[in-house]
Amino acid sequence: MRAVQPMRVALTGGITCGKSLVADAFAGHGAPVIDTDVIAHEITQPGSTALSRIVAEFGVEMLDAASALDRSKLRARVFEDPAARRSLEALLHPAIVAEMNRRAAAVQAPYVVLVIPLLVETGIEDEVDRVLVVDCPEDQQLRRLRARDGETETSARRILAAQATRKDRLAVADDVIDNSGTREATRNAVAALHLRYLELASHRAES
User: 207 in a domain, yes or no?
Assistant: First the structure.
């Protein structure tokens, strides 16, 4: 009898909406979490093929003094230049998605949470079973971004404009967590969804 693969839940949301908080809360309930940002860091370590391709595309100025990727400099470059952002995505996303799928296939659990910040931008929402969007108003995103990263109002708005819109994310959502309130409220929402996902995964395994 063929083993049933875990239900794949894509966790996405705009920058500073609270994806890490939600992912950590799911992990606290024992759910496996695979974060594509973590994968992106791993595959761009010094000596990697991906880092060599980034340097070939964007220049050695993308490296720091230790010959590691200067992520803040690269981020500034791609947020200022849509063509550069598309080039970077074309370089990295296939390898990131392949590694994500490899890790997800090895999971033995009712469901797995895949943290995919650029889910809508990459158009891979059809490759998962459910889409969970962590949401908050744009003005709250801007305040959090400026407080967290020290961005100016102009740069913070440029970063938001480079991502999918709030409307686009909500349009593909099966589930939404409103993270505009307290952390406790968000954790309670995760607890409820954890039970819901266990139920859905059970029905899926029986069908």
Answer: no
Structural element, H or E, at residue 144:
helix 138-149
Q: Is residue 13 located within the same domain as residue 57?
A: no
3-state secondary structure of 178: strand
Are 130 and 9 in contact, with CB atoms under 8 Å apart?
Answer: yes
Task: Tell me if 37 is assigned to some domain.
Answer: no
Looking at the structure, do residues 125 and 175 belong to the same domain, yes or no?
yes
For the chain, the domain total comes to 2
Q: Do residues 116 and 189 both lie within one domain? A: yes
The CA distance from 17 to 144, in Å, is 8
Q: What is the DSSP letter of 12?
A: E
Q: Block means of pLDDT (10 residues each) for the chain, length 207 residues?
A: 79 95 98 97 95 95 94 87 90 94 95 96 91 96 89 86 91 97 97 98 83
Cβ–Cβ < 8 Å for 170, 133 = yes
- Please indicate, yes or no, whether the overall pTM of this predicted structure exceeds 0.90: yes
E strands present in 55-129: 111-115
- pLDDT one-digit tens code per residue, 53-97: 999 999 999 999 999 999 989 988 888 888 998 899 999 999 999
Q: Is there a contact between 112 and 104 (Cβ–Cβ < 8 Å)? A: yes
Q: Are residues 94 and 63 in the same domain?
A: yes
3-state secondary structure of 63: strand
Which helix H or strand E contains 7, and what residues bound it? strand 7-13
User: Which 8-state DSSP code applies to residue 181?
Assistant: S
Q: Are the beta carbons of 174 and 131 closer than 8 angstroms?
A: yes
